[in-house]
Amino acid sequence: MALAVREPGRKLRPASRHLARQRATRVTWTKNGGRYSAALTPLVAPPCEDLMLAPSDTVAVLSIARQDFLSFDSSATCGDVVARFSDAAHKDDVNFACLKQSDGRFLGLVNLRDCLAEAATRPAREMMIDDVTPLTEDTTAEDAARKVLRTRVHCLPVLDKAGRIRGLLPDQAAYQFMFDMADEDAAKMAGIVGVAHDHDNYMNLTIWQDYRRRIPWIFGLAVAGLAAGLVVHAYESALDVLVILALYMPMIADTGGNVGTQSASLITRAISFGSITTLDAGRVLWRELRVALLVAATLFVFTYLKVYFLSNGAEIPMGLGLNDIGIAIGVAITVQVVSATLIGAVLPVVSVALRQDPAVVSGPALTTIVDLTGLLIYFSVTTRLLGIELAPA
Amino acid sequence: MALAVREPGRKLRPASRHLARQRATRVTWTKNGGRYSAALTPLVAPPCEDLMLAPSDTVAVLSIARQDFLSFDSSATCGDVVARFSDAAHKDDVNFACLKQSDGRFLGLVNLRDCLAEAATRPAREMMIDDVTPLTEDTTAEDAARKVLRTRVHCLPVLDKAGRIRGLLPDQAAYQFMFDMADEDAAKMAGIVGVAHDHDNYMNLTIWQDYRRRIPWIFGLAVAGLAAGLVVHAYESALDVLVILALYMPMIADTGGNVGTQSASLITRAISFGSITTLDAGRVLWRELRVALLVAATLFVFTYLKVYFLSNGAEIPMGLGLNDIGIAIGVAITVQVVSATLIGAVLPVVSVALRQDPAVVSGPALTTIVDLTGLLIYFSVTTRLLGIELAPA
User: Fold this and answer.
1) What proportion of chain B, given as a percentage, has pLDDT over 70?
2) At the topology level of CATH, where does A207-386 sit?
3) GO CC annotation: what is one (chains A, B) (predicted)?
């Protein structure tokens, strides 16, 4: 059943956008047992505006693989391969062809250049590249692109369940997909929605379109920011008693956002390069905990010294010393750094486990969460340690 | 004069890292009239750890271009071209060769596949691709990569001042460079330093190395965050008089960071895709101003309605009504949204004009700046509009 996938509000991937634009093909998405697959059909006019896009978690490798590849029977000679590549009508930029068995199953890859170097009568099968691990058609485009970029041969075949060749993924296409994805992730982390189409048209969007891609996160985060306001509001009497607390409040909140963004961004990168998986969650947390403790120790020392030596003229209530206050604020920032780092580390791992896009949580959502937890930590730690009584709000 | 470029603390680009790793070559940087150029020399062992890297603003196109390309005299035939490509010793994955004039100057590009399709005796010159605009060797790698990705032929030659061919830049290399750059920019925006080497080794860094790439921004921003604390501290008496101000304070600061990050990120993207330049600064500001006014209007309405209808039980001093307070806070958020959006738009343009990397200012630095300006705006606007007298701090 053919299905045009363009549901409003779904996250979209720029699947094969560039391919389609350059080579004037239309992508048709086919739903098959819960998965989408795509076919590229030649078109007369570039279908750039009309291109169908797939939800990000269902972009299959076939949507970025070439489907106009050459394939040969196992009996083909090097001369046969060169002759087909020489066909002026076949203007592809990929130098690889597939050899297939008599039942159509994949046998191996051959490189045009290898065949060119040999006598025309030599069986192409003897030139086959043997260390090729084919992709299956249910591989995601992202996994497939990573695998191609790690191979020595710069190209991998895509097979269906029966072992028949469905497409060929060259490294150009893999790089292009990864580049589009990195770019799209950067936009998501900045809280911009629906970036699939706006690659290079900053000036071309209408003001209204530009507004619509920015306002959802801005509005949502403004509402969420009221929660942080409630915390400040609830502890306003603590600020009355100890005015110096106001001085360190923005630093506590901001530092949480900064350390959380760092760890979320590093872990999102590591996940997207395949160097960690959700199974490594324990090791990731242990590593982040140790780094966070070093960062927290640095800021504890800085904060304590700042409070102790550079608080000239601050009003300190009876019974409290700068030593106590320095330690209390230092403990608060320590707890905030460790918790925000771990929240930043956990969110991308959890979002991958839940099949969500980690780039979204690594951005504005994270900052808002650790802002709130940071203010809660700050006021509860300092009022507890310094024995400040809160007036009823 | 040969010069190994690895000064501590300089921003590094992952120039030709992947190339060198895969093809076992060493990059040697040569300083020539204030510019760096690179030569790739074959090596026995992959020099991954030992690779020289260039400062980001001096990566020239030759560091990512192929230097082992084929070139032919203008008298070469299609058969000559095919024969050289067939040479088993020349295992490149680029299908293009250069034709040169008798004095060595560039004449045009030919495609192996075009020559294969023709009679061996036909002059290769007749198959030349004529709409090629060569790159010059003083082009930056970034500009060159963008130009290649826009061409129809997927490959561009790099010429020296005399018009001689120095290298060939295929689209694989261009995509790879752009992908590395997008990835590196994402890390910079998260405030992580020295990302050139840590592509896929999240688990391999020591805790101490990981600490060192995170602490510079965290520490610097914590110090800067104290300035925002001074603002809250200075206006503490306003919070005393009008407790409800505390409720909206984090929202004002956060919203500034959010809108600023959006506009900085969109403009950084537009600059890096070449769709705007520093000459467009006026048009960019005018566009951002209009989008910001729409966003600000939305938040003004939201804030006013929230204050007016959902402030049950808030202590309001004599002489002030919820209508006045709603308008005052709404005006403050309007000013904050517009100013933070414009600051976010100006910083990347200014940093490009000053030849700095826009990704750095689009990240943590921006958030800290608009946090500070936001609190100043918030307290000065509300105290002015509501006539709140400040107690001497």
Assistant:
1) 81
2) Tetracycline Repressor; domain 2 (1.10.357)
3) membrane
